[in-house]
Amino acid sequence: MTIAIGDKLPAATFKEKTADGPVEVSTDQLFKGKRVVLFAVPGAFTPTCSLNHLPGYLENRDSILAKGVDDIAVLSVNDWHVMGAWAEQSGGMGKIHFLADWDAGFTKALGLDADLSAGGLGFRSKRYSMLVEDGVVKSLNVEESPGQATISGAATMIEQL
């Protein structure tokens, strides 16, 4: 079953690289009592993710936060080393959370996992964005194709805010 608008997010713990090393970030820490934009990508450093999806959120960070959003996070089924390197390389470190769903546990619990083995990526996350308020999904935008970042992009999210 795929998560839907009005559903509460499942409990999970992610890993995130910080200046002090890796930290665990729980869904409660990230979402409880907050309004958060979460977007997910099939893989850090992949072309659409690095050239389109992530830059849109970084470029529009201030506009999104100005609309009453407390935090922005990107999630991928990668380890925290890869997500940390992507955060550093993209200039996003400290601006948004780069969350490693290293075992795809959260992604599978959402029902947003995808088998991208044909492209050499294995099991990953579908590309999506959502607005979460106090742990409840308020909007959800899932791409039909992993190579597109249109309905899950920052421009769509800004319109929904």
Based on the model shown, name its key terms.
single chain; 161 residues; alpha/beta; Glutaredoxin; five-stranded mixed β-sheet; two-stranded antiparallel ribbon; 30% helix; globular; thioredoxin peroxidase activity
Shape: globular
Main sheet specs: 5 strands, mixed
CATH architecture: 3-Layer(aba) Sandwich
Give the CATH level 1 class: Alpha Beta
Distance between the termini: 26 Å
CATH fold annotation:
Glutaredoxin
Number of domains: 1
Mean pLDDT: 92
CATH superfamily: Glutaredoxin
- Number of DSSP E strands: 9
The neighbouring-strand order within the major sheet is 5-4-3-8-9
Radius of gyration: 14 Å
SSE run: EEHEHHEHEHEEEEH
In percent terms, what proportion of residues is strand? 25-35%
Keywords: Antioxidant, Oxidoreductase, Peroxidase, Redox-active center
GO molecular function: thioredoxin peroxidase activity
Protein name: Glutathione-dependent peroxiredoxin
Active site: 49
